[in-house]
What we know:
The chain is an alpha/beta fold. The protein has 16 helices and 13 strands.
Amino acid sequence: MRHITLIAGARPNFMKIAPLIHAIQKAQRAGEDIHYRLVHTGQHYDRQMSDTFFEELNIPQPDANLGCGGGTQAEQTAAIMVAFEKDLMAHPTELVLVVGDVTSTMACSIVAKKLCTKVAHVEAGIRSWDLTMPEEINRMVTDSLADYFFTTSEVANANLRRCGVEENNLFFVGNVMIDTLLANRSRFVRPSAFDELNLQPQQYLMLTMHRPANVDEADKLQRMMHEIVNHVQGLPIVFPIHPRTAKIFKDLGIEDPNLHIVEPMGYLEFNYLVERAKAVITDSGGITEETTVMGVPCITLRDNTERPETCTIGTNELIGTNPDHIKPALDRLFSGQWKKGGIPPLWDGHAAERIVDIIVRK
C-alpha cells in the first residue's frame, strides 16, 4: 500500500495516530514510497480534548477537519459518515486506517467499505462483551468490516480467530498507545497543580471517571466519591474532571479538603502525575495500559474490561462498579499488598514500526 488515509476523531485516537505518523515519516526517509493523509473527524472539539494533542505529540495539522462534534450517538455517526464520504470521494486512497473504538472508527470504516476501499483496524479484536458500551459496538462493527487486523495481545488474536478472521490478515504487533508513552516519557511536563497542591511523589492518588455506569446516576456517583474520599488515609486526590462528569458533579455538592478538582490536562501533564501517583482510580481503558507499563497500581471501577492483560499481567485490578468494593481495594493498596505486575509482550515502543512495515509490503 502506498497511499493511506489515517482517521483521528477523539482524544484516545491521537496517542495511537502519532506513532503511526512518525513511523511513516521514518519509512519515507528510508526511501519507501508511502504517503498518508490525516483526517480529523472533529468528534472531540474541546481544545484540551483534541488540539493540544497535535502540538504535544508532534502530529502535523490534519489535512481535513470534518467538524463533526456534538449530537447523539446516531447524529454524530451520521454526520461523520456524510462528511467522510465526501472527503474520501474527493481524495481516493488505497487504505483507510482506523484506530481504537470511538464513533469515528466505526463510521469511517463503514464509509470506506461502501466505497470499496480496504480498511485496517489498529487495536483490533479487543472485547469487553458488554453491549451496553457504545465502544463495544464500534469494535464489533469495525472488525466485521476490516481487511487487516493489527492486535495488541494474544487474547485479541483469539477473539478474531473465533470470528473467522483468516490468519494471513491477522498481525500481532503490540500496542501503539505504549509507543507514544515510551517515546514521550522523558518529556512529561510538571503541571502547575503539582506545586500548587504541594504534591509529593507516591503521596497522592489520581482519579478519572466518565463512564455512564459510574457518573450518570447522581446517588451512585455520590456514594463512590464518599468511599474514595474517606478511605485514602487523608492523601490528596487529584481529579481532572471530564466534561461529561462535570455536568453532574457540580450539582452534588461533593467537597473535601483532600479532593482537588482540576480541568482536563494535556497528555504530557496528565502522565507526569500518573507516573508519580501512589495509585490511579479510573474507569478508563487506556489508562490501565499506561499504568501497567509505568508500574503504577490501578483500581478500575468497571465490571468488565477489553484489556484483560492489564489485569492478568499488569498492575490493574477490576473491582466493579459497586461502591462497596472501593474500601477493600484501597485497604490492600495501603497495606502494601498490591501486585507488582509486568509488561505484556510486544508493548515495547515499536508497534507502529511493525504496522508500517506490514502495510508497505501489502
